[in-house]
Structures are given as structure tokens and as C-alpha cells.
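Posting this for the archive.
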Amino acid sequence: MKNRIVSKIAEAARRYRVNQKYKDRIFRMIFHKKKDLLSLYNAINGTNYTNPDDLEIRTLDDAVYLGYKNDLSFLISDTLNLYEHQSTVNPNMPLRGMLYFANMLKAYVEEKKCNIYGSKLVQLPVPRYLVFYNGSDSMPDVSVMNLSDAYMRTADVSAGKGDMDGTIQEAIKAADPALECRAVILNINKGHNIELMAKCERLEAYAFFVSRVRAYLAAGCTLEASVDRAIDDCVTNDKLTDILVKNRAEVKNMLLTDFSEKKYRKILVEEAIAEGREEGRKEGREEGREEGRVEGREEGRVEGREEGRVEGREEGRLLTIRIFREAKENPEITFEQIAEKVGCTVQEVEDTLKMIGIK
């Protein structure tokens, strides 16, 4: 049942994504300029870079999540940074980050023409993965997710077994997993990470904007009215005016689409579950009917065998009586003659007479 429901959801989601154009989330729009992205990096890391050209954008063109480009990747100094915005808690962020970094590092090695088969150590930038979370679920200001948390734990092989040297096994068991990816989750909802917000004006403005949308929704306004009023509040307070004034319609459409798609995905899941359950009931009824037919046939065979035994015993009793009478009334009669008279085989006559003591 579970696999059926999952496959239904995946199938419907694939159909939905095929007909959608990729859209940037507002988070990417806010920090798409190098100077703004650099200010966010400085606020997070406590650095004071001033030249936006020190930052090299490395975002992958084909990295899309649920129809959106919601990532920002860049190289600065000796760090390769991946920033991703999320409005839902996703425990698989480290796995996605590892796959993303693998592609980025592959591109980096090819671009720098590094010889990974040579005797010289290839120097690589340090990967840093940050997830900016502003969903409605409760999350701490800072949390960490590790790829190693997803690894299946199997029983360790005791040292000294087989031909393997025990010290090798001990080293293997003591070593960390061969692959690790750590995602640092930052809660950017209003009221969280206040010190960080104070250092990055645009991040604080984004948190303000989202909080206003939610406040108007909670007050009973429609989604469209909530977005309009939130935009007006931001403009009044001189927050994100460079984006909200010039691109008001685009931002509004992004938010309306984002909320609608979240609602759509929820409905999609509910419909897929209902459809899966109905299919399960149909299959269950058919399986039940088949099992019933099998059980019925078996019960019929048992009853038939019992009835056959009863009928057979009665027929045998009557045949014995007839054979006995023929033999008693005519002592000179032969087995063949008795068999012909009672309608059985000669062997049956012989066996019956032996059984009752007449030879």
C-alpha cells in the first residue's frame, strides 16, 4: 500500500513539473547581485570583504528543486559556498548538498585542469553548506544535519575473524564514514537570529516581508490581499524597495504561485493516498474472492471425499451380502459365475469370500 501511494504521488508530481517553467524564488532575487550576496556572506562569517568581484558565482544551471531554482553557490577565497532557501523541514538536505557539491567540484577540477591521477595533491576549496529556513514549523536559530545520520547501521564484524588482520578491522570500525556532508540550518523567521539580521539588512527585510504576509493571512485576508499589504508595508518602511517597487507584479506572482503550489502538493498527496487506498480495496476484494474460491474448492473436495467414502462403504456392504448369498445358496458355483451374476470382478469375489471365511 505504501509503495503504491508513493508511486502515485511521484507520478503526479512528474506530470505537474513537466508543464511548469523554472522560477527563481524571492530569496534568490533578493541576493542575486554580488554586493548583496557578499553582505550576507560577511554577516554570517564575520568577515569584511568589500569588493564584490572577490565573489565568483558557481550556481549550477540545472539545479532545480520542485520547479524552482532556490540555490545560490559561489566561491570566495578558499571556500565553496552553497546557500539554499527552504520553507519546509527536509531531513535529506545533506544528501542533496553532497550531490550538488560533487557536481560543483567536478566542474572546478575540469575548469582548473587538475590532474587527479598525478602524484601531486590537488588543492580544493572548503565546502560550506547553509540552508536558510523560514517555514512555519518550529526550528531553533541554528541546527545541523549530517549525511552520516542517514547511513544504515549494521552490526560490526568482530576483529580477528577470517583472514583479515584484526588491527585493520579495528581501524575501519574506528574511522568516520567515507562520506560526510554537513548542512547548517539557519532559522530566518522574524525574531530568530537577531544578531545576524542586524548585520544583514536585506535578510532582515525579507524576514519582515514574510512575517507581514503571514500576519495578514492570520487576520483573515485573502492571499492576494495579504501579499499586496505586505509589499506596501515594506515600501513604507523602506525595505526591499529596489525589488518590490520595480518588480511588484513578479514578486506577487511568485508568492501567489508558491502558496498555490504548496496547497496543490498537499491536495496531490491526499488524492494519491485516497486513490491508492481505493485500488488497495479493489485488489483486496479480488484477492479475497480468489482465496474464497480456493477455500471453497478445498472444502468441496473434503466434503466430496467424505460423501464418497460413505457411498463406497454402503456399496461395498451390499456387494458383500450379494456375493455371500450366491456362494451359500449354490456351493458348486464358481468365482467367475458369481462375478457375472453380481456385476463385479472375479478378484473382488475372491477377496470377499476370503474375508468372510469361504474359499
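Residues 31-150+175-199 form one domain. Residues 12-24, 63-68, 157-163 have pLDDT under 50 and may be disordered.
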